[in-house]
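Researcher: For the annotation table, I need structure tokens for Mitochondrial carrier. Please keep the output clean. Sequence:
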Amino acid sequence: MAGRPRITPGLRGGGVGGVAAHSSDTRATPKPAERPSRGLLSFGLHFLAGGVGGTVGAAVTCPLEVVKTRLQSSFHYQTYRNGVAVPPPVLTAFRQNPPRAAYDHMRHVVHILRDIRRSEGIRALWRGLGPTLIGVVPSRAIFFATYNQTKTVLTGWQSPPPTAAAEVDAAAAAAAAAEPYALTSPFVHIGAAGVAGVLTATSTNPVWLIKTRLQLQSSAPGAAASTPTVYANSWACLRTVLRDEGFRGLYRGLTASFLGIGENVIQFATYEYLKSRLRRHREHQQAQIDGKAGARRGVAAPPPPPSVARSQQLGDTVMTAGLSKLIAAGLTYPHEVLRTRLRQHPDASGHIKYRGVFQAAVLIYREEGLPGLYGGMAAHLMRVVPNAVILFLCYEGVVELYEAYAARCATKPSLDARR
């Protein structure tokens, strides 16, 4: 059907782990019934594609994750503010001079990266990568499976019963088929992302707590005062937490993680909107080209070369993935600081400074002011935006490889029959 983009089951939702990329030549895209992968995209494919994208993104951006985590922590609050030309707070600086603020904060992040490499070694930049990778694959799989299933259920609630559907005007049905995004309310994506976020945060919180504590400890000389507990590895950290804090200690910061579900909701809704707008823009452009070609030659214009269509598809994915993540992360950032503070290990005397979301927010504001709730924001944005882009591109690559393989398998029987 003309004007219908490629939409794979469970991928139309967008956001982290969801890609609904489509070619600029929407006419050349087969109908859903013709796509061999439409009914074959299973939980295994979601698991594999999300795991690959999450693994590559986490490995590439891990050094920035270490810097961000330390800047969010109270243990390192003074470490990177003494003897270093610290830029003004993010909000104040960007109101005054956005280009200068971006440059200053990027330079500050680079300075910290160099300082960690010089004082602790290059391996310190990838501290906590093990738990991160262990958490990425199941979290992506859980999120994708839950999001897709919830979206299917919620979309079914929106659909009219069969008797009513039969009475729908043919023109209206055709218009709805040509506009698949109109069939899915934004509330469906919001609800699906919310449910998936709750289940994902609850099931993977212990992994992220271990990752955070490994990244907060420092192996630099003289760092023992600010980071009193040194964990040899992930298992040692797990045993120490269970021994000293009990099973509940593994779920410290979970409430703050629930606050972060809003980030997923905003990201998914923004991604869906941007994808829809871009698709309509491409269709409008192609319609104009066809109209001009038809006026001159009486025939429709040929579709763009595959290389051009592929470049436009990659560009759309990069832009929508990066922009949606930038907006969502920027609007909801304070929950990241609260989550890190709640997950950091007790001090030398065993005292737990931050015990709840509200108590932590009030204490941070009293001791550090509003900038304390935005500590490490520059490093965070420098990490999550490219990480989201890498995730989307890898995810889409795995899906397309699977579709190509499924297409070859679907055509092989017919070729054998001809012989």
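Researcher: And a one-line annotation?
Model: The chain has one domain: 26-418.
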